Amino acid sequence: MKKRIFSTLFTLCILPALFLRAQEKKLVVTGAVTAQNGEKLAGASLLEKGTTNATKSDTAGNFKIGVSNANGTLIVSYVGYKTTEIKIGGQSKIDIMMELSSASVQEVVVVGYGTQQRKDITGSIASISSAAIKNQPAVSVDQLIQGRAAGVDVSQASGAPGGRLNIRIRGASSLNAGNEPLFVIDDVPVYNNSKDPSGTSYGTFTPTNALASLNPNDIESIQVLKDASATAIYGSRGSNGVIIITTKRGSGNKMTVDYNGYYGVQTIANKLELMNGRQHAEYLNDWAVSRNLPAPFADPAAIGKGTDWQDELFRSAAIQNHQVSLSSAKGNLKYFVSGNYFNQDGIVVNSNLKRYSFRVNADARLSEKVKFSQSLSFARTINRSVPTSGAGGGNVRSVGEKIYATSPTIPVFDENGEYVDYWYNAAKAESPLASLLTIKNKLQGDNFLGNVALEYKPIENLTFKSLVGVNLINRNNQEYYPRATTYIGGLLGGLGMIGERKVTNILNENTVRYTKIFREKHNVELLGGFSWQKEQDFSTTTEPSGFADDRLGINSIGSATGSTIINSSLNEWAMASFLGRANYQYDDKYLLTVSFRADGSSKFGASNKWGYFPSVAVGYRLSEEPFMKELKFLSDLKIRGSYGLTGNQEIGSYQSIATLSTSNFYIFDNKLFPAARHNRLANGELKWEKTAQWDIGLDLAFFDSRLRMTADYYKKDTRDLLFTVDLPAYSGYSSALYNTGGLQNKGFEVNLGGDIFTGDFTWTADLNFARNKAEVTSLGRATSTTLFVGYPPGNFLGYVYEGVFHNQAEIDAQTAQVNVKPGDAKYRDVNQDGLLNADDRIVMGNSLPEFIYGFNSSFGYKNFSLTVFLQGAAGADRVENTGLTDPSDAGNKSVNLLNRWSSRNPNSNIPRAGFSNVLTSTYQLMNASYLKVRNVQLSYTIPSSLLPKLAGSSVYVSGQNLLTQTDYIGYDPDGGGDYPTATTLMFGINLKL
After folding, report:
1. What is the per-residue pLDDT across 3-47, written as a single tens digit (0 to 9) for each?
2. Are 687 and 739 in contact (CB under 8 A)?
3. Which one of 94, 130, 556, 782 is CB 3.0 to 4.6 Å from 552, fit for a cystine?
4. Could you please report the per-residue DSSP string of 510-579?
5. Per DSSP, what are the bridge partners of residue 380?
């Protein structure tokens, strides 16, 4: 009896638990597993923690699993991605986004018109993630690429805020057409062409960087497509490589708000070592005596240090950046919204760049078959610039020219407090400081870039996509050179300029994609499409002179009494394209990629409107062979090879057709009449430059991809180069554009990476190295004084400098040089004919580096991390043509000339002050090799135990361009012209709210 009572009570006690248990088993969780870029992950493993309940996602990434505990946890794993745990929390639908593990072979890479896993790629593609470029104080994306991708040479054209950079991928593919890569920003192709209105007719304009309108904080990833297999899908625009930029999309199961900001101070990275006031006064005395002129300074010592014009024109300058972003991927709507404010004062007085930008990226699943997406951004840039190297043709001096052409013997102000604007032997003089402070140069640009796309999936594995993209540019440039403080303004009674430029670029792309796995081993992807793009570019400029009052300037151009130059222009081009690609993979082992593109462009001759660009690539993953799987330390081993044709259409519009000029006037009946005449010969045979490239590559990964290596050897030959060929005078034309000549680039690239330590202490390192050799293989019917068959482009032609004539006896012992004096330069008579002439010149150097490299090392201990980034180039030469080492003129000089030849210093091999036999020679040639400490950053990530509401936020301090090791005596061996680069120290914070 007692047993029956006990049994009944026990049953009553466990019934509620059994009932609840049964109810819990009825909870079914569904959802989808995706990568961060939205790609569905097939075969992801899902396990209910603490049980054996498990399932895998299907080919569309969807999953369905019954769980025993509605408040339990799902463990989700996928090869190449970080294993993650998801709280169920009673939810019946959960979408899961997986995060890539470091440097995984399963990494998803954006390629032309699609994505691929890293392990399946047969071409040469370098990837730069947002983590690698995080917290860098860059104005534009091209600054972020420098030194981070093998084979990509990035040099600074100007150190000014918003200044341009030059990018060469595997060398220059052209000698006269464009050499910049194609940028594809969220599926919209663009070039780094400033599209700014021109400056005055005196050449005052300083080009800006078009990419400065793109906010680097919005970038998710950068892919650099280098070989023909990767770039041929872009056809006529693929010869110079392609850089694909993907901006951030919505992520997370709830809305997150992030704030990213930094503030820093910039100073000049390297000051020139110039003579001070006393030293330059002594130099000018020697210079005057050598010209049979009286010495201008009776007591040089009384001048002392004089004026350091670098201290007057350069300054400590602030840089700041602030961004707020919202992101979410909950349900059927994903969005990323950001607003950004960037403000950079230049290290040269009166220079500045401001940028205001706004972005809305969204993805909406309208139904199971229809998906809508958009990527829209707007940016306004306001650039206040100063003249840089080459601007003004001597009438408007650049910053550098103002410094080394101005004597330190003169003060900034005279005894009346007025700017001093003249010094000994000065030509076209003006006060360096007053001219910079009073020049008005404001360039405002508005840029709207974006696309909207619709995807339709009628059946499984088949997707149609239609995209419309726009790139709208509106630029306004205003310049004024005052009468009172600038040479050119004083000459013309004030010089002004107002320029407007409007560019409308429209793109439509329609593609169809089919993917299918047959019999578990045959993986096929087919892509076909049609693309159409058109651009209209209209610009107008008004250049008045002769102003009554500097205070009104261009705000009152109607009051100008001098001549007014008015210009306008309209340029249009259009392109239609058909494209296709097939990817085949067998057993995750054998890989094949075939692509083809046909481009029709309005830029070329009637007989050659269309160009055809095929490519083929193969890959073999030896690591998937059974005999290789026994090597447990080997994660991946792939051999790949590719060959293909790409083109270059960057020659400007209307180059193939005859054009008219209305700049001449003709006399009829003793009267002048405006008229038009032919100024360019038509060439209906004008066609594309074509580059044939083959590439052999090796991909290796060891120890679960903790150690990685990628190596490539390539050779690319460009034929039918676009050359301006001189024509005989009887033709009535001076020159015409033809296809002739050839150029070859070949080299190798290596990228090494490793997660050396893991755990509480981490160390990750990446090293890239590239060597490229360029050679002109043919000039055809073209002629050149600087290009030679068998030599690379970028040569420096000059004489061999052998020191100076120390005395008259050395002069009398030779016959090649006449009318020389002791202390004058001595040059080698190379052909030993007793004469010194052009036949004695040699190719004395080259501007191209022999190899480039970059090294990034990141250390971490718990919540602290330290990153050091080095970058360098070796083997490049520069010709020092600023006059710093030239004692023939009266400008300021390098301190090296303190050791110049004189009667007091007769054994020197540096020419005397005032020497007259100045020739371009090895005397001016300098080694421009360098190693730079580009970035050092120390950061701290706030743990949840310290501030739970700010968990994941971080603070950091950073230094940019901290050190440069080089023998070059100019501002920067990496370029920058006469506007030097800056060293930046800054503090930043990233808040996750």
Report:
1. 444 454 344 444 444 433 444 445 899 988 887 766 778 778 888
2. yes
3. 556
4. EEEEEEEEETTTEEEEEEEEEEEEEEEEEEEEEE-B--S-TTTGGGGGGG--S--EEEEEEEEEEEEEEE
5. 356, 446
